[in-house]
Specification:
Elements: H1 2-16, H2 18-54, E1 60-65, E2 69-70, E3 73-74, E4 83-84, H3 85-94, E5 98-113, E6 116-125, H4 129-132, E7 137-140, H5 145-149, E8 154-157, H6 159-165, E9 175-178, E10 181-189, E11 204-208, H7 209-217, E12 221-222, E13 224-229, H8 235-249, E14 260-264, H9 265-308, H10 310-318, H11 323-359, H12 368-394, H13 398-403
Helix pairs in contact: 1-11, 2-9, 2-11, 2-12, 3-8, 9-11, 9-12, 11-12
Length: about 400
């Protein structure tokens, strides 16, 4: 009953000065809103990137040539070791940890066919590429290993290339040309959307790696080897095995010298999580400063309120109220101001999330944990910054308070 009266008195005081209460809460509203928005953006970005990294494939290893090392001296940028198809065949034969693997040789070019031409990237791969990248053909078929060995001029195209060159019709069976080399389209890839870094993964043409090497590049090298680890719990062992095999293939005896660079999907995920986690915490801390500023504003207004209501406090103490009752009433008032501000700030965050989700490629969601954290923190600020004014009110001498003009 007593608590209900104190709560009612605090609420009446806030409602009696609505405009001043609203202005007092502004700092808390902006602070809570900023913290909730930035933390939600960080969490949404982590979820988005995790999905994109997961879309690269399952238990993936990305093997690229390391810079050459001559006589213990690291070569200049661009002076890299080479990976050939013979190396890839040896890796496939010697590895006990890897599952599927596919070399990839890239060549950009203007794709001509259908109703016009379109700039795209041609990736020379093997049929295992789809299994490694967890991708599938939506229409037609993937080219075969026999076609890779025969350097066949066949291609599987992405959805973007199909939409640009063959709008409203099936591209399977059609012919495209890359640098005057004709390719017969045998398949259409499933749509995948934007990739990591904002690239359009559907803007691609897959062709046999041997065909790309001989017809478009004039080189036997490959740019990267995509591989899946047979047992996802043995990724580290697989990385070490790949490095050892390539050292052996290149006659390198120093176990510290790297011929290739091996990146695992888990390591990429961990790197992004670490960076985004640190960035989110930093931005949240910066936004938290505005909460402290808002709390100082609450304390300032509460001190003014105590001064304005000195006679009222004196009358209450004179008719039997105890100092603890006055302290509790003013503390409730400060906490209510912060809680209302926290709720309005959370509403601001929800509104921002809805707008951001409509215009940005990632889904921004304000989680329950963020709401509880923001509102709980604002209540704590109310207690911390409201205690001093409440204590000052509770310690007023009734006689002096009644004489106050």
């Amino acid at each position: 009953m007593k608590w209900r009266k104190l709560f009612r008195a605090a609420l009446d005081s806030i409602l009696k000065n609505r405009m001043r209460s609203l202005l007092t809460m502004l700092g808390i509203i902006i602070g809570v809103g900023a913290v909730a928005i930035l933390v939600s953006l960080g969490q949404s970005a982590q979820t988005y990137i995790s999905g994109e990294i997961g879309g690269l494939g399952a238990n993936l290893l990305i093997i690229t040539p390391e810079q050459s090392d001559a006589g213990g001296v690291r070569g200049q940028a661009g002076n890299q070791n080479e990976i050939t198809l013979a190396d890839v065949d040896a890796l496939r034969a010697q590895s006990a940890e890897l599952g599927d693997l596919s070399p990839a040789a890239y060549s950009a070019g203007q794709i001509i066919g259908g109703i016009g031409n379109w700039a795209s990237q041609v990736e020379g791969v093997t049929p295992e590429y789809l299994a490694v990248r967890n991708w599938a053909v939506a229409e037609g078929t993937m080219f075969t290993q026999a076609e890779v060995e025969g350097r066949a001029k066949v291609a599987v195209i992405g959805q973007t290339v199909a939409d640009e060159l063959f709008p409203g019709q099936s591209p399977v069976g059609a012919q495209i040309r890359v640098r005057n080399v004709p390719f017969r389209v045998v398949g259409l890839l499933e749509a995948r959307g934007g990739g990591l870094g904002g690239d359009d993964e559907d803007n691609v043409v897959l062709a046999p790696v041997t065909t790309v090497q001989s017809r478009l590049r004039g080189s036997d090298n490959v740019d990267v080897v995509w591989a899946s680890v047979a047992d996802g719990d043995r990724t580290v062992a697989a990385e070490a095995e790949v490095e050892a095999i390539f050292r052996s293939l290149n006659g390198v005896r120093d176990p510290e010298e790297q011929v290739v660079q091996v990146q695992s999907q888990a390591a990429i995920q961990e790197t992004f999580d670490t960076v985004l986690g640190a960035l989110t915490a930093l931005l949240g801390a910066i936004a938290g400063v505005s909460l402290v500023v808002g709390g100082i504003g609450i304390m300032n207004i509460m001190l003014v309120s105590v001064t304005e209501r000195t006679r009222e406090i004196g009358i209450r103490l004179a008719v039997g109220a105890r100092g603890g009752d006055v302290l509790t009433q003013f503390l409730i008032e400060a906490v209510l101001l912060c809680l209302f501000g926290g709720l309005l700030g959370t509403g601001l965050a929800f509104a921002f999330a809805a707008i951001a989700s409509a215009v940005a490629p990632l889904e921004v969601a304000v989680g329950l944990d963020v709401v509880l954290l923001a509102v709980g923190f604002s209540a704590a600020i109310g207690v911390f910054f409201g205690f001093y004014p409440a204590r000052k009110a509770a310690r007023l001498d009734p006689i002096d308070a009644l004489r106050y003009e």
